[in-house]
Specification:
heterodimer, A: 346 residues, alpha/beta, Rossmann fold, 2 domains, 7-stranded mixed beta sheet, 5-stranded mixed beta sheet, 13 helices, B: 314 residues, 5-stranded parallel beta sheet, two-stranded antiparallel ribbon, 7 strands, globular, binds thiamine diphosphate, binds magnesium ion
Chain lengths: 346, 314
């Protein structure tokens, strides 16, 4: 294992991007502030100093056109990576992503490809409010012609980014802000994490927990609390949201017979609905449930915000109930240091 | 610098006019089962601009694109087969009239959503500069497209990065039936574009040669690193916005406006500049090409339904 090193999620994205830029001259990065001293959580820091300004550049606040410009550059043989500080801003890009990026291959009967990567930061920390916290992965999962990935671990962040850059299709790459400091072992070399392949992160026999991006960490923490009371929860990280690794989830469901999907988004027409529909159609005699954002915009004040999102506690409580446990049971307070230590400023 | 080739201009113009007249003639048979936006009346712009282009230049068109495609000397048979929704079509029936494309002549798949392919054209120009490629990008769009925010975002970026792109605004004064006066204060597309640092010119001609001269100068300047240029090409749409019909009954413009444009038809002018024998030969040749293309389309088969989900992903 001497080619492994321990780095965090943000560093893993930087490393994957850097190495693939070295490997392929057609890769370039653009977005608001990508070449400032912060370099989007360090993920694009100083890339222009190494690769030149045409390969890592700041842009006007023109999300709509800048998406089309990335698509056009991709049509011209380049591999653009468009970085967004918040996924909320992608709503200004929808026409380009849905009407153009997703369809140009189809409308040209396979003559053209759009190898565009759109990196979008999602998520809470504290106080991000209704317009700086949303995750729209489900919107994009709805669109044929677009792929969606939401890696949770540093290993998958690097491998998914490289796979996304090399993929011929437009890819929405979802990265949760509270994952950037997550540390893990990452191979030093270039490697790809395959689309459409999920992972069992913790094996278990009593119930299956499926998370999305940051809620995978909620599921892991919940499973540790559940273990204390004798419940063995299997935790699945789907990694790739479009395509979804249904086989992996079905296999686990058939083993545990109970599945709780914990989305990092609203429930209606979302990832959880999709997974549960698949399980309902393809498996028998399952107990199914789901959690996600409450059906409201995200409130700003911390006490409401905490209730709005799933948490390790709320996941553990629901899972315990599904396993026939006491509905008054509560796990000991489960610390989330990345949230607790967060102090802003944004 | 290229010279204006009257014969070639006439022949392309005639090809476009006759092809679209054939569409009108056949439309009632409902063999073209999708919308068509005809360019009749606007041919001088497409022909003039195309004659100034090289093989390496890249065209981004829009849903009103037959003239752009045929002036680019695209494949007539494949275009017709595409209109017919057949496998022999340039996109096996998945594009149709509104998304016509053919990469063998650098004619990019395009958009039916107004102004939506404009940033793609700019992005393509970025890739040309990035890779030091020859070839200027031509971005055709209507006067309605400049109402969209994305248009100006795109213009700003093209200008900021001094990209090799020529914007060709085909100003037929209308977005469907809505006059430019109802959509913006003042008649100011050129001055707006100029304020973004883009060199912009209005071409008030009715003659193909005027559009050719403007495009030829512009392309030449762009090749000599002038940065992007916009040509506002004043023109006139003779038929309805969409479909094969006329639109006089809708009363959104005066008869005189339309009659004047028709009286000034440059097809007749170009014809008068060529000797009679050549005219006859060109017409005969093109008429038979069109008939062949239609027969070819009729004879070609429809795609099988298993093709529906092909090419969603690569
Ligand atoms: C974003 C968008 N809004 C509205 C429409 C409906 N629409 C189709 S063509 C058109 C007029 C566009 O006018 P212009 O750009 O001048 O082009 P022209 O049709 O005159 O060639 C409109 C409003 C559309 N296709 N896309
Ligand atoms: Mg118009």
């Amino acid at each position: 294992m001497d080619n492994l090193k321990e780095i965090n999620y943000g560093e893993a994205i930087y490393e994957g991007c850097y190495q693939e830029m070295e490997n392929d001259d057609s890769v370039f990065v653009y977005g608001l502030g990508v070449d400032d001293t912060k370099g989007h959580y360090g993920t694009s820091k100083d890339l222009h100093k190494v690769f030149g300004a045409k390969r890592n550049f700041d842009i006007p606040l023109s999300e709509d056109a800048m998406t089309g410009i990335g698509i056009g550059a991709a049509l011209g043989g380049l591999k653009p990576i468009y970085v967004h500080q918040r996924m909320d801003f992608l709503l200004l890009c929808m026409n380009q992503l849905v009407n153009m990026a997703a369809k140009l291959r189809y409308m040209s009967s396979g003559v053209h490809s759009v190898p565009l990567v759109v990196r979008a930061a999602i998520g809470r920390s504290w106080g991000q409010g209704a317009q700086h916290s949303q995750a729209f992965h489900s919107y994009f999962m709805h669109v044929p012609g677009i792929k969606v990935v939401a890696p949770t671990t540093p290993h998958d962040a690097k491998g998914c980014l490289i796979a996304s850059i090399r993929d011929k299709n437009p890819v929405i790459f979802v990265e949760h802000r509270m994952l950037y400091s997550n540390v893990g072992y990452v191979p030093e070399e270039l490697y790809e994490v395959e689309f459409g392949k999920g992972r069992v992160l913790i094996e278990g026999t009593d119930i299956t927990l499926v998370g999305v991006s940051y809620t995978v960490t909620d599921c892991i923490r919940a499973s540790l609390a559940l273990k204390e009371i004798g419940i063995s929860a299997e935790v699945i990280d789907p990694v790739s949201l479009s395509p979804i690794d249904y086989e992996l989830i079905r296999k686990s469901a058939n083993k545990t017979k109970k599945v709780l999907v914990v989305d990092n988004g609203w429930l209606t027409c979302g990832f959880a609905a999709e997974v549960i529909a698949d399980l309902g159609i393809n498996c028998k005699d399952l107990d199914l449930d789901r959690m996600g954002y409450l059906e409201s915009p995200c409130p700003t004040t911390r006490v409401l915000e905490d209730g709005f999102y799933p948490s390790p506690e709320s996941v553990a409580i629901k899972a315990n109930t599904m396993c026939g446990g006491d509905s008054n049971w509560k796990p000991e307070n489960i610390s989330r240091k990345e949230i607790n230590s967060f102090k802003g400023p944004f | 610098m290229k010279k204006f080739d009257v014969k070639k201009a006439y022949s392309l113009f005639y090809l476009i006019r006759k092809s679209e007249e054939k569409i009108i003639e056949l439309y009632d048979t409902d063999k073209i089962k999708s919308p068509v936006h005809l360019s009749i009346g606007q041919e001088p712009v497409a022909v003039g601009v195309s004659l100034a282009l090289d093989k390496k230049d890249i065209i981004f068109s829009n849903y009103r694109g037959h003239a752009h495609y045929l002036a680019r000397e695209g494949n007539l048979k494949e275009m017709w087969a595409e209109l017919y929704g057949k496998v022999a079509g340039s996109s096996r029936g998945k594009a149709g009239s509104m998304h016509l494309s053919d990469w063998s002549v650098n004619f990019m798949t395009t958009s039916a959503i107004v102004a939506t392919a404009v940033p793609e054209a700019v992005g393509y120009a970025y890739s040309q500069k990035y890779q030091n490629n020859e070839g200027v990008v031509i971005c055709y769009h209507g006067d309605g497209a400049v109402d969209e925010g994305v248009y100006w975002e795109s213009i700003n970026f093209a200008s900021l990065h001094q990209l090799p792109i020529l914007f060709v605004c085909e100003n037929n004064k209308y977005a469907i039936y809505t006059h430019q006066d109802k959509r913006m204060l003042g008649d100011s597309i050129v001055s707006r574009a100029n304020s973004f640092g883009l060199k912009s010119f209005r071409v008030d001609g009715i003659r193909t040669e005027d559009f050719f001269n403007a495009a030829n100068d512009s392309i030449n300047n762009i090749k000599n690193n002038s940065g992007p240029i916009l040509l506002e090409c004043m023109t006139s749409r003779w038929r309805d916005h969409v479909g094969p019909g006329e639109d006089r009954h809708i009363n959104f413009r005066s008869d005189k406006e339309l009659n004047d444009a028709i009286t000034n038809d440059d097809l007749k002018n170009l014809e008068s500049l060529i000797n009679k024998e050549d005219v006859v030969t060109i017409q005969k040749d093109i008429d038979s090409q069109i008939n062949d293309a239609i027969k070819y389309s009729e004879d070609s088969s429809f795609p099988g339904t298993k093709e529906i989900t092909d090419n969603v992903y690569g």
